[in-house]
Amino acid sequence: MSGDMTEHDEHGHGPVAVDEHGHGHVVPSGDPFADPGLPEHHPRLTDISEKAAKRSERIVAGLFVLSAVATIAFMVCYTQVPNNRQSLVNFFPIGAMSASNFALGVCLGVALFSMGAGAIYWARTLMTDVEIPQERHEYESSNEDKAAAIAEFQQGVEDSDWKKRPLIRRTLIGAMAVLPLPALWILRDLGPLPGNALRYTAWTGGELIINDNTVSLDGTTGQGIRPEDITIGSLVNARPKAALSAGDDFNNMMVKSSILLVRMNEADIKSSQERDWGYHGIVAFSKICTHVGCPVALYEQQTHHMLCPCHQSTFDLSDDGRVIFGPAARSLPQLPITVNADGYLVARSDFNQPVGPSFWERG
């Protein structure tokens, strides 16, 4: 027999359809889900005890004050805590990090956590927790609904005790006023204007070129590079010998003086100046992209193209580092090189133009 037989189930859930295999299922009715309504509201301790409410108020205010203090501590640490090799702190098993980074992270984390924890604790203990159902509509609300929403908002302000709790109000306003200050505080590192800071680097005539792959872990020793160490098509990251004893000025020196050495067939070099500034097909260019200062390191041997991974600026190392694609506005600066009496590659002079991102003071 085909078709379904319909009867009611034993629990009164509605009609049950039985198929030809004897399997039954409840047939959904027009309104299968009854409105459960809102659960009974139970007042909190802070709703019935002003003493408990005052205690919660002090906790919230304390968290806001802690946020403000941590924010100010962030600015103090940014200025006073050193950020160099001597300040490294070992956090096992994470590894070593500078005391400055650790202090800044702790201060900012405490500031943000305290602000959020204070707001949450305020809402959970002092703001009203009465649930108010509201129908949602896809279309614009009527003027009556808008007026009702404004009235509900105003009622919410009243329920939050914003006016009644001046201690919370003042400490929150104070913490919110202090929180954006680190963004302004760190702007101090944007100055002074580039000027000579980008125009000159650590490279001078006779400065030994050090292979980055031979530098010790503490950055104080490294080996020079002989021309025979570089094969055609290979890429070598290098630094000036002065960087091995730079101390606290190491980061500032490396960000301007890092170079890339590439060897190609001399016949592939298109520019006579580039050929004169190189040594038997070995040429040296700044590692810092002239767009926004990212390190370039993606070399294509067949085309002699160097790609910056940040914004895809592409430079032709066989043609004075000329820009052939991307947003960079000028070529990679080339470092004139030669060999010294011991047969090691050295710089002949500094770069002929400022390294790094272009700036309008170049003249």
TrEMBL record:
<keyword id="KW-0813">Transport</keyword>
<dbReference type="InterPro" id="IPR036922">
    <property type="entry name" value="Rieske_2Fe-2S_sf"/>
</dbReference>
<keyword id="KW-1015">Disulfide bond</keyword>
<dbReference type="InterPro" id="IPR045603">
    <property type="entry name" value="QcrA_N"/>
</dbReference>
<feature type="transmembrane region" description="Helical">
    <location>
        <begin position="59"/>
        <end position="81"/>
    </location>
</feature>
<dbReference type="GO" id="GO:0005886">
    <property type="term" value="C:plasma membrane"/>
</dbReference>
<dbReference type="Pfam" id="PF00355">
    <property type="entry name" value="Rieske"/>
</dbReference>
<dbReference type="GO" id="GO:0004497">
    <property type="term" value="F:monooxygenase activity"/>
</dbReference>
<feature type="domain" description="Rieske">
    <location>
        <begin position="282"/>
        <end position="346"/>
    </location>
</feature>
<keyword id="KW-0560">Oxidoreductase</keyword>
<dbReference type="Pfam" id="PF19297">
    <property type="entry name" value="QcrA_N"/>
</dbReference>
<keyword id="KW-0812">Transmembrane</keyword>
<keyword id="KW-0249">Electron transport</keyword>
<dbReference type="InterPro" id="IPR017941">
    <property type="entry name" value="Rieske_2Fe-2S"/>
</dbReference>
<keyword id="KW-0001">2Fe-2S</keyword>
<keyword id="KW-0408">Iron</keyword>
<dbReference type="GO" id="GO:0046872">
    <property type="term" value="F:metal ion binding"/>
</dbReference>
<dbReference type="GO" id="GO:0016705">
    <property type="term" value="F:oxidoreductase activity, acting on paired donors, with incorporation or reduction of molecular oxygen"/>
</dbReference>
<feature type="transmembrane region" description="Helical">
    <location>
        <begin position="167"/>
        <end position="187"/>
    </location>
</feature>
<feature type="compositionally biased region" description="Basic and acidic residues">
    <location>
        <begin position="1"/>
        <end position="23"/>
    </location>
</feature>
<dbReference type="InterPro" id="IPR005805">
    <property type="entry name" value="Rieske_Fe-S_prot_C"/>
</dbReference>
<feature type="transmembrane region" description="Helical">
    <location>
        <begin position="101"/>
        <end position="123"/>
    </location>
</feature>
<protein>
    <recommendedName>
        <fullName>Cytochrome bc1 complex Rieske iron-sulfur subunit</fullName>
    </recommendedName>
</protein>
<keyword id="KW-0479">Metal-binding</keyword>
<keyword id="KW-0679">Respiratory chain</keyword>
<dbReference type="GO" id="GO:0051537">
    <property type="term" value="F:2 iron, 2 sulfur cluster binding"/>
</dbReference>
<comment type="function">
    <text>Iron-sulfur subunit of the cytochrome bc1 complex, an essential component of the respiratory electron transport chain required for ATP synthesis. The bc1 complex catalyzes the oxidation of menaquinol and the reduction of cytochrome c in the respiratory chain. The bc1 complex operates through a Q-cycle mechanism that couples electron transfer to generation of the proton gradient that drives ATP synthesis.</text>
</comment>
<comment type="similarity">
    <text>Belongs to the Rieske iron-sulfur protein family.</text>
</comment>
<keyword id="KW-0472">Membrane</keyword>
<keyword id="KW-0411">Iron-sulfur</keyword>
<feature type="region of interest" description="Disordered">
    <location>
        <begin position="1"/>
        <end position="44"/>
    </location>
</feature>
<keyword id="KW-1003">Cell membrane</keyword>
<dbReference type="InterPro" id="IPR014349">
    <property type="entry name" value="Rieske_Fe-S_prot"/>
</dbReference>
<keyword id="KW-1133">Transmembrane helix</keyword>
